[in-house]
Design brief:
Order of helices and strands: HHEEHEHHHEEH
Strand content: 5-15%
Oligomer: single chain
Structural class: mainly alpha
Strand order of the largest sheet: 3-5-4
Largest sheet: 3 strands, antiparallel
Number of domains: 2
Distance between the termini: 94 Å
Number of strands: 5
Shape: elongated
Helix content: 40-55%
Length: 225
């Protein structure tokens, strides 16, 4: 009996010591080491790829798309885009029954509809008409054939932060007019925020909408020259 108790106590002691040692190693030292390496070599990524404006205020993450809508007068009314800003891709998420219908971070996903799906065709058709109407100005007319695919379709995640350079350029005249800026000035802003293919051959050129709009906001605060 005494031997049995001694063996049990020895096993409990060994288990407790192992628990304490592994807790310190796996629960304290390892997380601290990983955090230290991440902050030292990948600080921006580790902190969420945050974007700040000229005042230093964090306005979002370069990895997550945002909408730029006018304030709602009624909570039940549909969101209307604020046309003084560059607009992102549509965000239909998982469809009309999804919680991700406007870059919501609760859930992400694609529409999962085939190219000949009637609902998807209606979305694309209506969205293209809106893009043409919204971006045509007194001195600039957008043709339906000028509308790029990313302007009328959501991404696989529904949270894509980037648009194509073609879609950004299509919005230049409207943004310039709404902000009382020169078209060439806004065009230069788009060019400055256009990123090429990764490593020169992967993916497509892109423009981060949040970074572009942050620069546009800061541009509006600069004294006129």
């Amino acid at each position: 009996m005494n031997t049995s108790l001694k063996n049990t106590a020895r096993l409990l002691g060994a288990g407790t010591r192992a628990l304490l040692v592994l807790t310190v190693i796996c629960g304290v030292l390892y997380p601290l080491a990983v955090t230290g390496v991440a902050q030292a070599f990948f600080g921006d990524e580790a902190n969420g790829s945050e974007i700040s404006d000229a005042s230093g205020r964090t306005v979002g993450s370069s990895l997550i798309g945002q909408r730029y809508d006018l304030p709602k007068k009624d909570a039940d009314e549909a969101a209307e885009p604020d046309l003084k800003w560059f607009q992102p891709r549509p965000s239909n998420g998982l469809g009309t029954n999804s919680v991700n219908t406007g870059y919501s971070l609760i859930l992400s996903g694609a529409t999962n509809r085939s190219a000949d799906n009637e609902e998807l065709v209606a979305w694309v058709t209506d969205t293209k008409a809106d893009v043409v109407a919204d971006n045509s100005t007194d001195s600039w007319t957008v043709r339906p054939e000028d509308v790029p695919a990313d302007a009328v379709t959501s991404s696989g995640s529904g949270l894509d932060p980037d648009i194509s350079p073609a879609y950004a350029k299509l919005q230049v005249h409207r943004v310039a007019e709404r902000n009382s800026l020169d078209v060439d000035q806004v065009s230069r802003l788009v060019a400055e925020h256009t990123e090429g293919r990764v490593l020169g051959f992967m993916g497509e050129p892109r423009v981060n909408v949040l970074e572009l709009n942050t620069a546009l906001r800061d541009l509006g605060k600069e004294p006129s020259r």
